[in-house]
Each structure stands twice: as structure tokens, then as C-alpha cells.
Amino acid sequence: MEQELPPIITWDNAWDIGHPEIDEHHHKLVEMLQRLFGAIITAQGEDYVKEILVELIEYTKYHFKREEEVFAEHGFDRLSEHKELHQDLIRQVLDVSEDIIVQGATDEISDEVYYFLRHWLADHIIKEDLKFKTFLASKS
Prior knowledge:
The protein has helices at residues 20-41, 46-73, 79-103, 107-139. The protein is mainly α. The protein starts with 19 loop residues before the first helix and ends with a helix.
């Protein structure tokens, strides 16, 4: 019998920034984190955890690039600052994820990666990306 895991993040529609493509990306990132969480909690195996982690990193890079393009198209006044945050986050994600890719998915490393990514995603969307929502609203 398969055990249903509690969501690591329960999406709140108030977190939607008002751009359908970017909102879809955010939902997909949450789903990917849920898969990573599930793989770690149910001990799906080191290779599977690595596969999800690499997929998450690549999708995050794609998302950040596309988000920056969308923000630029709309003339977002905090784009330079936002790009710097993205660069810092990618460096942090790579640093934290390197251990799991190189050393394997030990419980300690997996937990560290999971908690970092969970808080990073929630904090970035809620604290930073919602500034774009406010910016869009001010232009209307």
C-alpha cells in the first residue's frame, strides 16, 4: 500500500504573481520539490534522488532565465537586483546539492538539501517574486 505524503508546501493562490507562465513554473517547482521529498522520505534510492535533484537544478536555471526575460519585457524596476538574487541562489543550490551528487544521498545530506530547497523556494517566491505582482498592479 502506497503511503501518501503530506505536501512540503501547500500552495496559496495569493502567491501567484499574475503571469500565467511564471505561475505555472512556480507550481512545477513545488511539484518537483514534492517528488524530491517523497524520494528522500521513502528511501527511493540514491540514483533516483540524484536524478530528481539534477532535474530540479536544470529546471530552476531555465525558470530563472525565463522569469528574468518576462520581468524585462514588463520593465520591472528591480530586475538587476532580482538577477543577482537568482545568481546567488543558483550558486547556493549547486553548493548544497554537490554533496548529494558526489557523496550520495545519505540521510543527513538529503535532509539538508531538502530543507534548503524548501525554504529557498518558499522564501524566494513569497518575498521576492511577489514584488513583481505589486509592480504589475501599479502599472494597471
